[in-house]
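Subject — a protein and its fold
Encoding — discrete vocabulary of local shapes:
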Amino acid sequence: MSTEQMSRYRTKEARAKHVEEQRRYQQRHPNRVAETQRKYREGNQECDARNETHQETVGRFWSKVYKTPGCWFWLGTHSHGYAKFSMKGVMRPAHRVAWELAHNQPFPEGKITLHSCDTKNCVRPDHLSPGTDRDNSWDGRDKGRVGSFPTEHCRRGHPWREETTLYYRKRHKGGILARRCGICAKARVELRAAQQKAPGEGT
């Protein structure tokens, strides 16, 4: 686990839970894990062999981005749902690279990346900002991502309306009724379609 991840899981119980979730994921999806590791190795080797200029790196980065009127989705390598990009033989969070390219400065040390859109696969610079764990917690409460209180909007800001709300039952939670935003679901379908059309590169 990286230093950034350790700072986000400070308590012993939370760290243990995170490690257990990773272990279960690796057991359920061994092929995905092996594929991710393969892409990491090939990506590092490819980046080392390129000896590319900064301008070429910038062009390679943005060539892996699918832009919509809202979020800009990453089509390159992912690890546990988070975008990754290889630079000088090192895999880095793609959203941090996007922020650095937009602001022409290193990402602040000791900070985490906050997404105003609540989409962890988004690399649109004006949706990203440095912050602390406390900032992230308060942002989650303000947007209804945490806590059991009812909300009027989904976590990406779409209002809960009967015509755009999908209802289903969570089997792993005793079949309780839950809801899903139909607008977000449609966006995910469009994103998957764009990923299938994108070149099959590993970085």
User: Anything to note?
Assistant: Confidence is low (pLDDT under 50) at residues 5-9, 44-49. The radius of gyration is 18 Å. Helices lie at 3-8, 12-28, 30-50, 54-62, 94-103, 133-143, 182-197.
